[in-house]
Amino acid sequence: MGWSWDPSLYEGSAGHYAVGRMAYPTALADVLRDELGLDGSGRLLDVGCGPGSLTRLLAPLVASAVGVDADAGMIAEARRSGVAGVEWRHLRAEELPADLGTFRLVTFAQSFHWMDQPRVARAVRPMIEPGGAWVHVAATTDRGVEGDDPLPHPRPPWDQVDELVVGYLGPVRRAGQGVLPSGTRGGEEDVLREAGFHGPQRLEVVRGDVVKRSTDELVSAVHSLSSAAPHLFGPRIQEFDDDLRALLRSASPSGTFAERVRDVAVVIWRP
User: Fold this and answer.
1) Of 120, 147, 135, 143, which is closest to residue 228 (Cα–Cα)?
2) Is 96 a domain residue?
3) Which of 163, 165, 144 has its CA nearest to residue 155?
């Protein structure tokens, strides 16, 4: 059975996402501010905002912001943040423009691959004001860079964690009520060009900083993924979590890990 959208894609993951994903760097906001001339005016639309990680980072650069997400739990988590000047809306990207108006900046972070891309691109283009931009933020925030350079604490045993997930859920990647044997869809550049965008302009936020992570954060990082969302484990969720914690405890008895954070890629398109 192939995968198609269903509301259970990230069911139960919202709280884990907020805890287990590493934060976007403040340097990302600096890069977008300088490149796009963001000066506190205009509006931001963050599509597929999740619990609002990127929305909150960029909100100070604009007059107001709207974060939309198809998962009710993600929007509930975002609303708990209590950030002024941000409106949170529970809706699918395919429902845009949804009378939201126009925006100086529209962002997609780790989200566009889940959408009906041609439909969303066509809907968003007229929502972008003259001189505005579509920004795709590509980042891996659940885990850091692989390597063998010395760190102050053990690296998480991600290969073994992945094997544990496979042992419970099988070798084919799960997604909602379906599977993704070939991963998520690509082809973003062709879609955007066909929708009337030009570009892309590529930027990179180079990082390399080292962060400490706890066992709880790593457990949440696993459950923040659609491929390991809590509901997929059914009645075995506690058994899986116990095995996961035992694995992590064997890798670091102190319960503290260290990872080198990955760079963030920024792709800018203009209507």
Assistant:
1) 143
2) yes
3) 144
Question: Which pair of tokens denotes residue 171?
Answer: 């070798």
pLDDT band at 185 (very low <50, low <70, confident <90, very high): confident
Domain around 18: 14-270
User: Does residue 8 sit within a domain?
Assistant: no
Residue 3 covered by a domain: no
d(CA 252, CA 235): 28
- For the stretch 62-76, pLDDT in tens is 999 999 999 999 999
Q: Distance (Å, rounded) from C-alpha 243 to C-alpha 266?
A: 37
Q: Residue with structure tokens 């070939």?
A: 182
pTM comes to: 0.94
pLDDT (mean) for 30-48: 97
CATH of the domain at 63: 3.40.50.150
pLDDT class for 1, splitting at 50, 70, 90?
Answer: very low
- Helix segments in the chain, DSSP class H: 14-20, 26-36, 53-58, 72-79, 117-124, 158-169, 188-194, 215-223, 237-251
Number of domains in the chain: 1
